[in-house]
Amino acid sequence: MSAHIVRVDSLEYLVVDDVTTAYQALIAAAAIDEVSGEPLHAIFSITTDRPDMDARPVSDGVFVVSGYPERIFLPVTVNITIAAPGYRSVSFPVAIAPGSLPVNAASVVLRPFPVRVQGRVTRNNADRTPIAGATIASATPGALALRTPVHFDHAAGVVVRERALPAAGAPLSLSEPAAGQSRSILLNSTAGLGPGSVLRLGEDIDSEYTVVSALGPDAGEVQLTSPLRRSFDLLAAVQPVSPGATGASTTITRPADSGDGLLLLGASLAPGSYEIADGAATEYADANALTDAAGFFRLDGIVALRILDLRASAAGFIDLTIPVSLDFAEPVTVASFRLST
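RE: above sequence
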């Protein structure tokens, strides 16, 4: 212990230090962008479950958690949460043991939220005449753009294969509108349907596949294994399909989250329809986007790449491929094509 004198006005006090504390870094780590593999450049926030600790970013994705180790009663586990615009928040524990300060924790990987790519395909002429029915496809090897995002999470290693999905039975229709996120639909008939039946909702431009989990309890009511991604109007087409012949297959290389519309695969597959073979989470999807009568298209759930090469093609026109830079801090990226004959 050390002693020193403190003078206040005309009085002197002899002060003996009992405990000396030091405010210091307890934990240090870095936040990493999953897509680029680089330190997170976005502004991010850090919180902990400890009111006696302070957490803040430093620079280039590095952050520290600081406090007075003498007051914390080590060892202790700190639960940290990192949040940033455009990214999924991440929570994780870090254990602090006596004599280990500061703890250099493992880097924290933040996954961006998926974004939408939308735009228009027109003739390369003065009037910019819209081209209906054009196809917008991923031209990046191993990156498969889906017409409708997936309904389930899928781990790396899950098999994706080309699979024919021909019509099986009479066309049906919705007897009331179906909103996105609905877990059930109402049909004009459920004849021939049962658990495991596969339905294609909508027309080609907005096709979405869903699987029946049960019928009822009301007449015409169909329960689904997952919520719908899209909304469909009254009398929208519903076609039962029967999974048929299979083609080439590959596996998912980056885990896909529910809502992702871009799958990273070990090999490229031919355009068409697919089965994601994942046990109870098995689902079906079509590739690529199509333009409407005004030439507009959209691809939802695009993630995993900073630059995605997109190719526009239409009968009678020369294909055009452009690189699209994705900013995951913005919900929409615009990409348009002008096709020549």
